[in-house]
Design brief:
alpha/beta, Rossmann fold, seven-stranded parallel sheet, two-stranded antiparallel sheet, 40% helix, 15% strand, SDR_fam, SDR family NAD(P)-dependent oxidoreductase, NAD(P)-bd_dom_sf
Amino acid sequence: MSREGGTMPDLTGHVALVAGGTRGGGRGIAVQLGAAGATVYVTGRSSGSGGSGLDRPETIEETASMVTEAGGAGIAVQVDHSRPDEVRALADRIAAEQDGRLDVLVDSVWGGDPLTDWEHPLWEQDLDSGLRLLRQAVETHVITSRFVLPLLVARGRGLVVEVTDGNTARYRGSFFYDLAKSTVIRLAFAQAAELRPHGVAAVAITPGFLRSEAVLDHFGVTEATWRDAIAQDPHFAYSETPAYLGRAVAHLAADPDVIRKTGRALATWSLYKEYGFTDVDGTQPDFAAHWADALVDEHGPLGDPL
């Protein structure tokens, strides 16, 4: 199927759940799954009927509308993924409305930005905030999988995608942030081990330098004017939109041999080479290659940033 962004897969008839699909990478994934023709349940706390406390304008209803406009069917469901009863009800609803069918579970629940302390070491951080970050960014993923995985297992096929930051063991700059993002990779690894006998694959995936709504706001630019921020940060020239991550996931979801990748931590910068997708402007950002080629100081390579 030829769609904008290269040859896009056809996911017509597929059902996906994107947990944490309000904004950023989650929104990008939801919309691109919709562009491939899927029915996408978009969940999160930020709804027109109530916010998440993050003081952001994006809502799950907006994302669901974008999914539908892209060619799929978007269904917004307000869910706090830290509450097992709400996640159980979500799984029951999907089973009832889709005759038990679920093909893809994407867990992009995060909400940890206001809880991340980039300035202090562990022994100087607020413990309450750090533990809240772990509950928000790790426990929510465990709770979601606990109640949603049975839908995939029952069908004997499907894909679980854990969205993270980076796919290496490098330190990510803040203790609790690092612990959360590296643990998400381990969640994919552990689920892969248990799901493989049931024909279900589980992977972690990372974008490069992501031009999320919050990042654009941080630089004081929009997606239309994002290049103006390169003067503030030259590395921003190698950034990518959330759609790039979404196209990577759409191709994974359509790959009949995706089980070969189960248990791996993947990245947009390697998957575009395999599947041939592009970002919205037709480019193929590769932040890892940029880091390897350009970020060398007088002492030699600075190491892997991702």
